[in-house]
């Protein structure tokens, strides 16, 4: 495979953005030692970019690899991969609109995956994308009562993607959440606001009965927020610098890879 300098530059920038997205999601409390974010490959639409198996806050651009829709490395190299990479592979394979996927164990969202009393709802304009009934993936329906809860193979990935059925936010019972976007920025934005929205709903609940957005309010609010993604991203990037969590200054000068 040959590539032009422009293609190489685009790929380098994508790897850099993906490393930044990993760190933002850590700094904003969505990721801890676990969680992963991917984006569709900028040149090859049948592949996606994702870090090798590494804690998100430590991901450098050099850690990013291309995987195919079987969840296999495109390059002939030996690197440890995320066990749950099949989540990403299956969603890109079946939904051409998805440009980015975030899987996390977002701490305030997890209680909503197990609650029998309530579901996660759009309470405020920043979470309009939570409208409708969110799918909640029940792994017991596929693997019985004794799975380890992980989406650890291609078949489970496909079952999760089928349960998602195009929804931007898919809860996973007793596990976490998988969130998609039409861009990396949108998937990051939705992931952070899903966590914030869950916190707000717990607080509203503590006051008693509460009101949710109508479907029309949610949809209009989401349209309005689409134009604001960069403002949020810039702030979250600035937070990384302030906290000393930003990636090394320029690609190529990052710490050497140790496997
Ligand atoms: Zn997981």
Rg is 18 Å
Q: What's the total count of β strands?
A: 7
Contiguous helical run count? 8
Pick out the low-confidence regions.
250-254
Q: How would you write the strand order of the largest sheet? A: 3-2-1-4-7-6-5
Please summarize the sheet with the most strands.
Answer: 7 strands, mixed
> What is the string of SSEs from the N terminus onward?
HEEEHEHEHHEEHHH
Report on this structure.
With 259 residues, this protein is of the alpha+beta class. 39% of the residues lie in helices and 12% in strands. The protein is built from 8 helices and 7 strands; from the N terminus they run αβββαβαβααββααα. The chain has helices at residues 5-27, 85-94, 110-114, 140-143, 154-164, 184-206, 215-226, 229-242, and strands at 36-40, 47-51, 64-68, 100-104, 136-137, 169-172, 176-181. The chain has a 7-stranded mixed beta sheet. A hairpin with a 6-residue loop joins strand 1 (36-40) and strand 2 (47-51). The longest helix has 23 residues, at 5-27. The chain is globular. The two termini are 26 Å apart. 41% of the residues are buried. Bound molecules: zinc ion. Zinc ion binds next to loops.
In short:
By secondary structure, the chain is α+β, with helices and mostly antiparallel strands.
How are the secondary structure elements laid out?
Blueprint: H1 5-27, E1 36-40, E2 47-51, E3 64-68, H2 85-94, E4 100-104, H3 110-114, E5 136-137, H4 140-143, H5 154-164, E6 169-172, E7 176-181, H6 184-206, H7 215-226, H8 229-242
Parallel strand pairs: 5-6
Antiparallel strand pairs: 1-2, 1-4, 2-3, 4-7, 6-7
Bound molecules: zinc ion.
Zinc ion binds at residues 84, 103, 105, 175-176.
């Amino acid at each position: 495979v040959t590539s032009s300098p422009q293609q190489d530059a685009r790929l380098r920038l994508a790897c850099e953005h993906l490393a930044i997205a990993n760190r933002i999601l850590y700094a904003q409390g969505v990721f801890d030692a676990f969680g992963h974010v991917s984006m569709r490959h900028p040149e090859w639409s049948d592949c996606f970019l994702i870090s090798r198996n590494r804690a998100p806050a430590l991901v450098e651009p050099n850690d990013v690899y291309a995987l195919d829709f079987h969840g296999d490395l495109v390059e002939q190299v030996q690197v440890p991969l995320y066990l749950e990479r099949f989540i990403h592979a299956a969603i890109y394979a079946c939904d051409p609109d998805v440009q980015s996927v975030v899987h996390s164990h977002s701490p305030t969202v997890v209680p909503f995956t197990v609650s029998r009393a309530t579901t996660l709802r759009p309470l405020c304009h920043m979470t309009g994308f939570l409208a409708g009934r969110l799918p909640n993936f029940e792994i017991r329906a596929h693997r019985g009562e004794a799975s380890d809860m992980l989406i650890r193979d291609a078949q489970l990935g496909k079952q999760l993607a089928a349960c998602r059925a195009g929804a931007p936010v898919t809860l996973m019972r007793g596990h976490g959440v998988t969130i998609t976007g039409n861009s990396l920025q949108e998937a990051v934005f939705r992931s952070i606001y899903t966590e914030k929205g869950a916190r707000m709903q717990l607080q509203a609940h503590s006051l008693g009965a509460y009101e949710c957005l109508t479907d029309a309010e949610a949809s209009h609010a989401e349209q309005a927020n689409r134009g604001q993604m960069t403002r949020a991203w810039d702030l979250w990037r600035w937070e990384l610098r302030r906290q000393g969590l930003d990636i090394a200054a320029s690609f190529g000068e990052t710490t050497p890879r140790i496997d």
